[in-house]
Amino acid sequence: EYITHLLVSKNHAYGDSALDPVRIFSTASAVEQLMVRIDDKISRIMRGQEYPDEDTVLDLIGYLVLYRVYLRRQSNDEPL
């Protein structure tokens, strides 16, 4: 439930930018942008460079869920 709340609140704050990016500077696909964000979170965890006011592991979980949602949408499978 916490992850759901986190994703919904961030989706509201960022305007669905994870699955429907505005593409002002980057023309990369939504899935490519998600994978970059996932890489960034894993890099922070591996290097021990997490921000004190941010839970990098929860953010990583959220991005992995969004990645899964994206894959399901692309394959027209049942929703999560």
Protein model, in words:
With 80 residues, the chain is an all-alpha fold. It has three helices and no strands. The protein has helices spanning 2-14, 30-47, 56-75. Helix 1 crosses helix 3 (56-75). The longest helix has 20 residues, at 56-75. 9% of the residues are buried.
Provide the descriptors you would attach to this structure in a database record.
80 residues; mainly alpha
Number of strands: 0
* Overall geometry: globular
Percent of sequence in beta strands: under 5%
User: Strand pairing plus helix content: what structural class?
Assistant: mainly alpha
In short:
The chain is mostly helical and 80 residues long. It has three helices and no strands.
Chart the SSEs and their pairings.
Elements: H1 2-14, H2 30-47, H3 56-75
Helix pairs in contact: 1-3, 2-3
